[in-house]
Each structure stands twice: as structure tokens, then as C-alpha cells.
Design a protein that fits this description.
Length: 155
């Protein structure tokens, strides 16, 4: 009985979620040979969300994005996971001015909340986001295969 529980918990670990995401993005990166073909090509789910967007209730993030935007975003996030947030902050320093890392440090100096509760909140959020991003990478890969005519390959 313990093995089943451990196996379930391992499946849902942050480490495994990150590995699934990185694997999905690596697969996407290996599959997409001509990223420029992704420009102006909406994700399938994006096509279905047009009615929601026009009503103004959708999230402002990626409202008018194409598959190429997702491709670049997913690769950037993979890089941040693999190389760390400090490397990402160094790449973005010129673009943002004050780095998010510095802002985070300033906030930490003024607060000493329940760190365990804060950790679990962020861990849960990170796991949720990684799961969604993994699905996006898999969707993008499958759509690319369909568009170039190899939709049944790799299944």
C-alpha cells in the first residue's frame, strides 16, 4: 500500500512536473524545424476562445498570440528552469531596470510571514502553471505536426 501512495506522490512532485515540462518543450523544439511557420497560426484552443475574448472577460495575457509566441515563451521558461532565475534576471536586467529578484529581496526584508504556508502556496501555484505549460507545449507540437502533414507520426 505504501508503494502506491509513494508512486502517486512522486508522480505529482515538482521535480517530475518540471521534467515533464522540459521533456515536452524539448520534444516541441526537436519537432518544430521551421519556427517561422508558427507565425499567425493560433492554437486550436485559442480559436475556440475568440467569443470569450471579445466579451472582455479573458485574461489579458496572450489574448492575441500565435503559436510562435507560445513557442518562444515555452523555450524561455525552459531556459529559466534549466539555468536558474539569476541567469534569467541577468538577461532581463536591461529591459526591466530594477530586477524582480531585487524587488523580492526588498519585500522579504519587511516581512516574516509563515514561511511554510507561503512555500506551499507558491509550490502549488508553480505545479499548476507547469502542468498548463506542459499541455501548451504538447498542443503546439501536435498542431505543428498537423500543419506540416505529419500529424500521425510519433503516436
Amino acid at each position: 500500500m505504501m508503494q502506491i501512495s509513494d508512486s502517486y506522490n512522486q508522480k505529482n512532485s515538482l521535480f517530475n512536473a518540471m521534467n515533464r515540462f522540459i521533456s515536452a518543450v524539448n520534444n516541441m523544439d526537436q519537432t518544430v524545424m521551421v519556427p517561422s511557420l508558427l507565425r499567425d497560426m493560433p492554437l486550436e484552443e485559442e480559436k475556440n476562445m475568440n467569443a470569450i475574448r471579445t466579451s472582455g472577460t479573458a485574461s489579458p495575457c496572450f489574448c492575441e498570440s500565435d503559436m510562435y509566441s507560445y513557442y518562444v515563451l515555452l523555450k524561455s521558461i525552459r531556459s529559466d528552469i534549466e539555468w536558474g532565475i539569476v541567469a534569467a534576471e541577468e538577461r532581463r536586467r536591461d529591459k526591466l531596470g530594477t530586477s524582480a529578484l531585487e524587488v523580492s529581496r526588498m519585500e522579504q526584508e519587511g516581512e516574516d510571514d509563515d514561511l511554510e504556508k507561503l512555500f506551499h502556496f507558491h509550490l502549488s501555484g508553480l505545479h499548476t502553471v507547469l502542468s498548463k505549460l506542459t499541455r501548451k507545449a504538447n498542443t503546439l507540437t501536435n498542431r505543428y505536426k498537423e500543419e506540416i502533414g505529419i500529424g500521425s507520426w510519433g503516436h
